[in-house]
Structure formats: C-alpha cells, structure tokens
Amino acid sequence: MVAEDHGVGERREDVLDVAFELSQVLDTGLDRETLSILIALCENGVNPEALALVVKELKRESQDFRAQEYVS
Amino acid sequence: MEVSRRPSGGAGLVPTAGSDYGAGVAKARDERTVLLLGELCARAHASSPQRVKGALSRSVGIIAAENEGESEVAQRAASSSLDSFGMEASIAASVQRQLVRTGKRDEATGLPLSVKFAELHERFSRKGLLRRYGSLLRLLNQLSGHWTDLDGSHGPNPTAASGAGNTMVPFKVIGGEGHNHPHLPRGGHQAERAAIRKLKYFRIKERDDFQSLHERDLVRDVLFVAQGIDGKFVKFSASEDRYRVADEYVVSAQARELVANLCEVGWLYRRLQGLAEAHEAGDGTDPKGSTQQAFFSAVRGHLAHYYRMLALVESRVMSSSAGGAEHGEGGLIEREVGGLRVSLRSLAIMLSEPTQQLRVLAILCDGVEGLKGGALVNRLFKMAKHGDPHVRGLVGGILHEVCRPLFRMVSRWMFEGELHDPCGEFFIREEEGVPLDDLWRHGYKLRSEMIPSAISGDLARTILRTGKSINFLKRCCEVKEWGDFHSLSREAEASLRFGAGEGGGGDAEGIERFVAKVAKRVDSHVMHTLFYTFRCGDHLQAVKRYLLLGQGDFIQQLMDLSGEDLNEKAGTVSAYQLGSTLETAIRSSVVQFDDPEILDCLRVEMMPHASEEYGWDVFSLNYVVRSPLTCVLTDDSMRKYLRVFNFLWRLKRVEHALCQVWQQMKPSVQLFGGVRNEDGENVVGIKGEVRKCHCVRNEMSHFCMNLQYYIMFEVLEEGWTEFKSKMEAAEDLDALISAHDLYLDGVVEKALLGERSQALVRQLNLVFDLIMRFQGFSARIQEILKEASQKRRLRTLRAEVETAQGNWGVDGEGAGELSGQEDVDCFPERFLYSTRYELDAIKGDYKVLVDGFLKLFPTVPHLDLGLLEQKISFNIS
C-alpha cells in the first residue's frame, strides 16, 4: 500500500517534470504549481479550451490589477 | 475533507473509474473542479486575495459556458483510447508543424524546439502517463506563447483563436471529453450569473464568427441528407452531383470527408426515390409492365424499410440531444446525456449496411432500365449471381417479387389458357388475326428474348404447348372441361418460384416437374379428345385409303364408272355428275360399310383447267375435314395429299388404259384365230403387228405394275406403318403433327414428287404420255381390225345365207362387193407400213424414255429405288 503510494507519488513528480518541460517548450509561461493544478483540472474532465480561456483571463486580470496598482 | 488539503507540489490525479458516471461521482468531480479552480485563482491573485472570489466565479462561468456548447456533441465514445489517441496525434502533429514553422531553438541544448517537443510527446504518449493527455496538450497549445506572440496580443484574440481552433485543433468539432452530469450550484450570486451570461454570449458569438461546425449539426444534417433533403450546412450541389458541406463552413478535412462519404446514402436515396416516383408517375407513352411494377414496388419496399431504419437512428439522435436539452438548464460544467450519443462515426457504422443496400438497389435500377418481363428477370438473374451473400439475398428477394407476376401469368396460361399480357412481358404472345384452323400452328409464338434463363427452351415450349392445348380445346374443340386443376394450382404456388439463392439457377427442377405434370394432363386430354371425340385416327386412315388409293376396289370402280365422263374435254365435265358417280362407286364397293361420317368428307373436285385438258387431268378427290382436325390435316398437307393423289390417279389411269388395251386385244386375237389362211400374207402381216403390239403393251404394263408396286408397298405402306406406331405413341399434339408431317413429306419425296426428283417425274410423265399415245394407237388398230372382222363375218353370214338359198358362188349384183371383199382381208400396203412404222416409233420412244428414266435414278441418291430399277430393267434388257 505504502509502496504503491510512493510509486504513485514518484510518477506524479515524473509526470509533472515532463509536462513542465513541455510547457516550457511551448512557452506557456506557467509555473510548476499552476501547471499541476491545470493538469488536475484536465484530468478532472474540464474542457481544455475553456480552461485556457480562464488562464488567459486570470493572467489579464492580474496584469490589469498590477498595472492599476502601478498607476495608483 | 479534500478542501482542507492544500495542493502541494503536484495536483492529485483524479482516480475516477472511466465507466462509473454515477451522480455522486459527478458531484464530487464538480466540487473538485471548483476547488481546483479556486486554487488556480488564488495563485493568480496571490497579491490581492479580495479578488480571488470574483475571479473564481468568472472562471466557473467560462467553463460552464464552454461545457454547455461542447457537451451536446461530446460523446462517451470520445473517451475511448482509440479516439483520444487519434486526437492527441492530430493535435501533436499540428503543434509540431507550428513549431517547425517558428523555427525556434532550445537555448540550453540548441536543438530545435520541434525536436524537443517530439521527444516529450513521445514520452507522454508511450508511457500513458496521463489519462487525458490530449486535453493537456490542447490546453498548453492554447496557452503557448509562440503563437500568441506572433500577433503580439494577449488573451482571447478571435483571429488567433480561430487559427488555433481550425488549423491547429482539427478535432475540436469532433468532440471533447466525456462530460459528467451537470450540476448547478444553487447558491450562486447575481453577479456571477451575469458574468456567466456575458461570457456565454461572448463564446457563442466567437463560434459563430468562426463558422466552424459542431458534430451535432453535422449529424443532424447527415440525417436529413439521408432522407434526400438538403441540410442546413450540407447541401446538394447539382454541378458536382453530390452532397457536400458548404464551403463557407469550416470543418476539418476528416469530418468533411466523413460527411461526404455518409452523404452517399442520401445521393442514392434521392436517386432511387426519383426513379421510383418517375416510374409511378409514368410518362404515358410507355405502359408499365407488371414485372416492372413489381420491381419498383420491391424497391419501394426496401426504401420504406430503409426509412424506418433511418427514423430509428433519428429518434436515437433526437433523444440524445433532447436529453441534453432537458438537463441543459441544470448543466454547469459537465453533463451526461442518457442514452447513446450519436457521432458521425457511429452514424457511419449505422448507415454502412443500408448504404450498401441502396447501392445495390441503384445498380439494379440502372441495370433494368427500359427492360421488362423476361428480359428484366434475366438481368436480375445475372446480377443475383454475386459472391456477396447479402447482395445475393437482396437481389434474390427482389427477383422473387418480380417473378411473381410472371409466374401468375404462367399458371394462368397453363390452367386457363388465358393470356393477359398488355405490355408484352410474357414469353408467349398471341398472333393477331390467325384463323381458327391455324390456331395450333401459328396462333401463339414464343418471345425468345423474354424467356427467363431459368426456363429452358424445352420448358418454355412445353408451357407454350400446354396453354395452346387448352385454347385449342376451348376454341377449336369447344370442350368446356379439361381437367381439374384446383389441387394443382396450390402446388403451383409452391413450386413456381425461383430460389435465386442457389446460384441463380434456382428451383428450375421444381418448375420443370410441375410443368411436366400439368402438360401431361392437358396433353392427354387433347389427344383423348382428338382421337375419341373427333376420331382423328379414323380420318387419317380414311385419307390414306381414299386419297392414297389404299382402297383398291373403290378406286377401280370409280375409274370404271367415271372413265367415260373423264374422256370428255375438261370444260364439259360436270362436277355434279362426277359427284353422283362417286356416290355410285361408294355404294358399289366395300366402302359402303364405312362410317357415313367419314364418307361425307369425301368430295369430288375439279382443278382449274385449261381448255385443252381432258377430264382425266382435272379430276381429283378431296377429303374435307372440319375444325379440330385441320390442325393435323392442314391446307398445306391436304395440298400435298392431292399432289400424291393426282400422281397416283394418273398412274392408275395409265394402268387402266393398258388394261383396256388388253381387253380390246383379247377378242381381236380370237377373231384372228378364225381367219382363213388362204387369204394370204396380208392377214399374217397385220397379225405380226398385233403381236408386236401385245409385246409393247406387256412391257408397259410391267413398268406400270412395278412402279405401282413400288409406290404402294415401298412408300405408302411402309410410311403408314411407321406413322401409325408413332401416332399411337404420341403423347401430345405437337408430336402427332410432326409425325404426320414427316410421314407426308416422306411419301411426297419417295413418290418422286419432291424437289430433287422433278426430272424423274418429268420423264415419267413423258412415259405416261407415250403409253396414252400407244393406247390411242392400239385402239385405232383394234377399230380397224374389228371393222374388218365384222365385214368378214357379214360376208360369211351372207355366204351362208346364199348357200342356204342354194346360190353358190357369187351373184352378179355382188360384183361390186367382190372388190370390197378383197379389201376386207387385204389391208392396203400403205396402211400396214404406217402401222408398222408407228408401232416401231412407239416402241423405240418407249425404250429411250424408260432408259432415260432409269438413268436418272442416280440423281436421287436419297431414295431407295434399287428394287424398282432391278424390276423394271429386268424386262427391258
């Protein structure tokens, strides 16, 4: 049981590594944690296009926010 | 429980069982999705936590909106490994292409990014590390900085997204992931809802701009097209003669091709429907045959079947989309639809068999265009010989339907003798305007091109004969009953069918058996009627006895009685008188005991004649038969009989003439026996001529006798014996007729009346003419001799009277007569010479003619004249 958990954990790491590399190749600008959340969301069956939209929206919002902060 | 657990390094892989879509699991998944989104938002707005909540609600809205659009076409099948693999591969391929195009290189290794991507992609896909690797790939692809940078903008840019949506993600339209049951969070705020609405609107608008189609739309359109109706997006293009997705809609190449393939069924349906309708409407000029009608009704039956199947498919599609709509109100992120979802691919599977069917039907329709009746059946037969058992079965079924009217015609024809065929489809046709007497021979004909190949020529002829027999019984013999076929007609239903299943040939044996059975019954009825009711055998025998001079005493009598009349010129001979002579001849010979019915048929006929001809040349007997027998004794065969009769009659007459010569000569010999010898050489001289005359007569008589013998025994009797045995064995009328024809032709041929023996007959006629000349000559001589002997007798009587009166010698007044007395016994020298000369001429001519006749024998090698030759030449040499 424990060994299996460990194995799964190792695989997760592994997967995340590869996925992260992939994300870098594609120049998505995502960090590891965000990517892991996104992977989890994908695995949960969320529509990837919608998810991409959400991510872009969030990025835009935070940028806007930062810009506002900067202005203020 | 899960909420408390903060995400550490890696997000948990969700261990959901692919097959379990229970509501509880769905709810858990929704909750988890929201949770994860929360984390995402928290990370994005780490600096300002007050914004997290708003961002979360918007995110949820986006995702819900997206799901709403996608889930209806989303299919359960999409989550199958094959599908997702295909999707991954295609996305990866498009990403790879894009990377190559950008030409960027990895800073660390210097390798092109595309190479690195390929490596990573291979690792992922080989190991199967992620269940939804495809989704991740799509996500990363969308977020990729390479192509958003290209046009220098961030966020959802329509053009960029359009590029991604269409070229880079070809399977967008084909469907996404399996989505779960929608679940609505009841406690949402007003603001959230507004955001959702807004986002939804945005998304929908965006899609409309792309004009990329959802699979759902395509499925619906294909279903329309399958019914021959233009869809919204898929329309019939008349120029290309096919259905296609309109150009303004963006569909992946694969989907486009799939749709095009699927639309074949619509094209076929449209075509078939068109043909069937055109047939139904008819163009007025061409009458619709029953076989053609049967064919099209079978086709329509198949189309109806196809339509039912289509309705079933449609109801499935409808129920899946209707189910979607029902649950749609509650749908938040994912939704599950009850029942089977229908995708283009599953549609392709469902439609593949009907497509094949329609294809075969279309080929059939093209094949039988313009054909009818047997020709149509034949074409179908040819097509039924197919390796594919499905095709064979399909064509066989249609064939069965098409054959049904044909078989109805066959059984009607064979049972009732009725020909109901307004469109000329049956392989038997009725000749127009054939007189009743010719009904059997020319009334009905076979249409060879309409005979189905399963029916052999013999079988078709048997069928023809059977129906003809019934018609013959009905119309010529006026028989109302020709056997009870009620039991047989039921059998007919069973046996009259082609089992096209067995290699096209079908159940031909069954048909043959059945036809043979019916034919035998009808045939025996016909023969029975002919021979017992209409006494065909007796009539044929009578014809032989009277027309072929089989009844010797009658003919002799007739010749004796009519001889004087016939010696007259043809113009003065009265047929009426000859008729009464015939009556007398009948009454005075054995034939008077014959059946009066047969004797009634005997007539005297005068042939058309020239003024120079004598009664002998134009006289002929005729035998007049009535309706049913005319099929055997046709006008044609009666003409042949008459030719033979005339020949025989001539022969008989020559023989008769020779007999007369004998009759006249016999007493003259006796007369000469009493001639006194003292009167000198002159009497002896004429005596020599008379003897020579006898010799010639004897030769001629020998010739005639042998010729007659040949014709009577080697031709007539032999032929008759043969024919009689055939007649008794004949099972049907055709056999009887052909046997009779054979017999008659044999007689004509062997009696030297055929085409090839015309030279012989001419020669023979010359011989006959010579004999008649001889008869005239000898009659003249006899006349003179008779006169002479009468004179002599008178003189003798007178001398006796004188002697009795006591006057011996001659008295004075007889001085004048004395010279006359000299003349009585002494024929003038000139007369003797001329007689001798003419006799020699006749004898010489006769020899030459008979020699010529015999020499012509080798020209007719097909006749067996050996015995005749021997017998004739025996005497001559």
From TrEMBL, chain A:
It is found in: Cytoplasm, Cytoskeleton, Microtubule organizing center. The lineage of its organism: Eukaryota, Viridiplantae, Chlorophyta, Chloropicophyceae, Chloropicales. The keyword Cytoplasm applies. Its main location: cytoplasm. Belongs to the MOZART1 family. Keywords: Cytoplasm, Cytoskeleton. This is Mitotic-spindle organizing protein. The keyword Cytoplasm applies. GO terms for cellular component: gamma-tubulin ring complex; interphase microtubule organizing center; spindle. One of its GO terms (biological process) is gamma-tubulin complex localization. Pfam families: MOZART1.
Automatic annotation (TrEMBL), chain B:
One of its GO terms (cellular component) is microtubule. GO terms for biological process: cytoplasmic microtubule organization; meiotic cell cycle; microtubule nucleation; mitotic cell cycle; spindle assembly. It comes from the Eukaryota. Residues 538-804 form the Gamma tubulin complex component C-terminal domain. Gene3D superfamilies: Gamma-tubulin complex, C-terminal domain. It is found in: Cytoplasm, Cytoskeleton. It comes from Chloropicon roscoffensis. Keywords: Cytoplasm, Cytoskeleton, Microtubule. GO terms for molecular function: gamma-tubulin binding; microtubule minus-end binding. Belongs to the TUBGCP family. The keyword ATP-binding does not apply. This is Gamma-tubulin complex component. The keyword Zinc does not apply. Residues 219-531 form the Gamma tubulin complex component protein N-terminal domain. It holds the Pfam family GCP_C_terminal.
